[in-house]
What we know:
The complex is a heterodimer. By secondary structure, chain A is mainly α. Chain A has 13 helices and no strands. Chain A has helices at 2-32, 51-61, 64-95, 101-110, 116-129, 136-140, 147-158, 162-170, 175-186, 188-203, 207-212, 221-229, 238-271. By secondary structure, chain B is mostly helical. In chain B, a hairpin with a 2-residue loop joins β3 (243-244) and β4 (247-248).
Amino acid sequence: MARRAVQTALIHLTLIVVVLLVGFPLLFALIKATQTGAAVNSANVIPSTHLWDNLVSAWNGAKLGLYIRNSFVVAVGITVLKVITSSLAAMVLVYFRIPAKSLLFTLILLTLMLPTDLLVVALFDLVNKLGWANTYQAVIVPFAASATGIFLLRQHFMNIPGSLLDAARIDGAGPFRFLLSVLVPLSWNTIGALTLIQFIYGWEQYLWPLIIIRDSSHQVIQVGLKSLIGQASGQTDWGMVMAGTLVAILPPVIMFTLLGRQFSKGFVLSESK
Amino acid sequence: MDNLAVFKNRWLALLMLLPTLVVLGVFLYYPALETLRLSLYRANFVFQTETFVGLSQFRQLLTDPSYYQSLLQTVIFCALVVALGLAFGLSLAILVNQPIRGAAVYRSLLLYPYALSPAIAGTLWLFMFNPEVGLVNNILRSLFGIAPRWLDNPILAFGLVTFAAVWKNLGYNLAFYIAALQNLPGELLEAAALDGATPWQRFRHVILPLLSPITFFLIFVNLTYAIFDTFSLVDILTAGGPTLGKTGITTFLIYRVYQDGFQNFQTGFAAAQAILMLAMVGAITALQFRAGRGINYGA
């Protein structure tokens, strides 16, 4: 019995140390975001009261507000477009009788082997020729379709009982009625999971915006962090930078809290076929 | 399967597929072909010049010692990120999966690094390891009177980037391992325990083999992460430096494409590198499919 208690205590101790180690950079950012002046640049880890000042100076002075707004436009735009295009495409792949269907699906899946990060050289040329440099569409439209989304929704649609389709047909429902009043309500978990994955993907874009957006009025937060840090690192206002990073972390954390359960459900469903 | 396919309006089907086909065609397939074409040209976006040079840029790459150095650095970095990421992920998952009070709290606290982007991870580590004002050197200075130049010393910088990358992805690995551990068939573990298997034997011969599908999946996810997604972490922490030998110690393959394409403006040369990397990605995917057939999914 005593041996068991010692073991449990040891596990707790190890876990507390591990949580502190793993969580430390975040905790550290939280503390430093409340400090100002010399305290930020010292080993002092006692929270102070300057969080709001740091937030305001990042938000207005260092354009954090602008970057966050741009990231929202981009991440939401990508997510909404991907969910719509993927639902339409998956519906055709499952419920329509069309020629060369499996070839089409293969061509869609093959794009998983063409990561945008490797195509930036040619994409830069293309998007410039379209006249889209320094615009939102440059960072949204190239990501408006998703092989992952089509794959997940197709899997999900194929598991919806065919009897529902028959019932809808007997009631005289056309393809769009069927999509909106049968498929979508039955797919919230998958759509939720997809929304979460794509929002975080959109929010974390870095290489492509770094290349194609040269003017800060359309720049996203991930790249904007660099300008918050500034060029001369000796002059960096780290309290302000830490406040900025906290704001940049919030949207994915909120999305994760809201949709995390959908995510695991959607994932489990697609796992169990 | 096709009994579900009841709608026959082909025009409508085409219309519904059109957005996907246009986006994938214009922004993935076309740039891929264009990258292939550019790799055969000595091209420059700034001056809008193009000269056909055949395969000479590939020859130039494959005879360039600094390219091999980048390749080697990328391989070592990927191996470390995958190995350390999975080892830490699995050990922590086993630890928080113990039947103790508050396990759920520990779990959610450990998952949070996943919500961070690599760019933010880079920013946090840049501050902590800043040689003058960072916390780590403030402590080292007062305790031992030393203040290492973390980002100027090649070995330290490489280690720092590696650990930051592993730390950032820990939550992801942990989430999948925790879920997998909770889905293990209890009867098998009980049977092993009844047969007198020690905890280590149970781990080595029962748990580990049962986890192999998820481990297999995580290896490739972490590999993709290490090759592509760590770009922003590197860009913010070290910008590819510091130099060791022929090139920057953290100038990994993807960073090289960026440097040559958008800092040195050698468009065609960058395209050739992208084509080589696409071939490597293709090889890894093929390997994944082949190896995947040999994995026991327990079904």
